[in-house]
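Re: Re: ligand-bound prediction request (bumping)

Still looking for help on this. To restate: I need the protein modeled with manganese (II) ion bound, output as structure tokens. Inputs repeated here so nobody has to scroll up.
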Amino acid sequence: MPTPLEKWVEETAELTGPKKIYFCDGSDAEARVLIEKGISEEKINGKPVFSRLNQTLWPNSYYHQSHPNDVARTENLTFVCHSHKDTAGPNNNWMDPAEAKMKMTILSRGVMRGRTMYVMPFVMGHPDSPFAKFCVQVTDSAYVAVSMRIMTRMGKVAAERIGSRADFIKGIHSIGELDPNKRFIMHFPEENLIWSIGSGYGGNALLGKKCISLRLASWIGRNEGWLAEHMIIIGIEDPGGKVSYVTAALPSACGKTNLAMLRSALPGYKVWTLGDDIAWLWVDKAGQLRAINPETGFFGVAPGTSPKTNPSMLDTLKAGSFFPTLFTNTAINLDNNEPWWEDLTKDYPAHLIDWQGNKFTPSPDKKAAHANSRFTVSIKQCPTLAKEYDSPQGVPISAIILGGRRTTLVPLVYESFNFAHGVFCGSMIGSETTAAQAGAVGLLRRDPMAMLPFCGYNMGDYFSHWLDFGKKMVNPPRIFFINWFRRGENGKFLWPGFGENIRVLKWVIERAQGKAGAVETPIGFVPDAKSFDTSGMDLSLENLDKLFAVDHKGWDAELKDAKIFFEKFGSHVPQELRNELVTLEKRLKVT
Ligand code: GTP
Ligand code: SPV
Ligand code: MN
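Reply:
Sorry for the wait, this slipped through. Here it is.
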């Protein structure tokens, strides 16, 4: 008798018609075979899937170029297909599940012809965690298969647990024709199924990441009473050796990976890394908030990563273990066959080809690496990996940080008055769009909790879920807000960021411990001059003032925009948040 897994694979193969089916075991030897296949057999856009990089300078590293039309998540082609449109909410594209399935079935017929179908059992989360999600993705891309082995616990460990069970999450993926007109990323929450065709890139194709661990998991979490969030998890060690764990959500390409691997500019402080993109949070029996990272790797933004900004990441990328390191759509320094991107070195290498393989001549309006070029690397190679990283019980969380990318208005850091007020502030966060998603860059949009593209159900209901979740905790953590990206009149960042961000984290944990001082403003508490550590730092008082200034008129305009956003969700917006809106409006008028 075939197992449900074998039966499903057979049915999927019947529909998609691959020339071969290969069951991945997740072994080291297998990854090498897949890379070799990618070097010598499989092609994308006429080019080999992988090429070997300089193995002395970048051990076990390989280069991949995606199709030029396939370089970022495509939110406009991403659908969440609940039976009722209202369940998906205005934050998601929706299609009737039956119609969507029909569409995907037609698009899938024979789509893997001539290709190998890789079958990948994997677990999101530690297999012994009660939150572990056992999944199987099929794909016809060796790049996706190698990436999934880095990013998830893939192979035997999952296959053994799934055994003859039928309740695993299913993912069907094919790069198809890489035609944007035949590209869809479809979610079927009621069937625990993701179906993605036409893209081989990142969150569109590595289905364990945004599709399962956020869109699907957020929906499961809502029904089961936990949260799946676009958050990093870090431990902050103070000079006394005490470690406080915090989570932080920032929209795509707004600084999560860099914050997760921060190398402290303040002596005696150290940041330990547990996760850089996704956190699952729950309240334990004692009423304490806890978090785990369901992933096992980083899929990080390359541009901006340098020995100055993120030395730990460069150490991670060069650590070379039995996990390969992949570079996607970076430029190549031809002299040494090394990956290169903007800011990796101060000067351009003499002989560079851009992310599409063309000779590159520096000019102010051209970039050699794609703005969303990325690396894929195992978290186990991270020199600051926390010892609790692999614990099924996760870590206790003492503060939640939320934020966005704002050129103006939003202070470097502020703290909400209480949990419900924090949820309100989180629900009205605005952030300027980045190259992580296809479309215009730099447009301000509401991105509550950095979850706008990832919440797998109606965001109004999501706000209620956050409020209910807060009520389960004995001591709900304080909620803080950050913005590294405020600029002065000269267009330059007011705050140096990166390693200096430890000063903000220090204030956050000292506030959580009830130690640091603050000034009350209509939007929340901002640091007072005495409690914010600027020792050894070259920052003018004028800039410090600007970083913590609260412009009442500007916030009033922000509030109006938030109101328009709330209105989209109609009766789904909880009354508690509506009340907070009115209270903030009043506070801004009085002061
Ligand atoms: P996703 O992987 O898309 O979710 O992105 P992320 O939130 O992990 O962002 P990441 O840390 O990769 O940073 C994105 C971009 O912002 C990179 O180009 C960084 O160099 C830049 N960046 C990160 N932190 C800071 C900071 O503190 N200040 C400034 N100015 N830029 C930063
Ligand atoms: C993001 O866009 O938030 C990412 C990259 O982390 S992707 O995997 O493409 O979603
Ligand atoms: Mn992300």
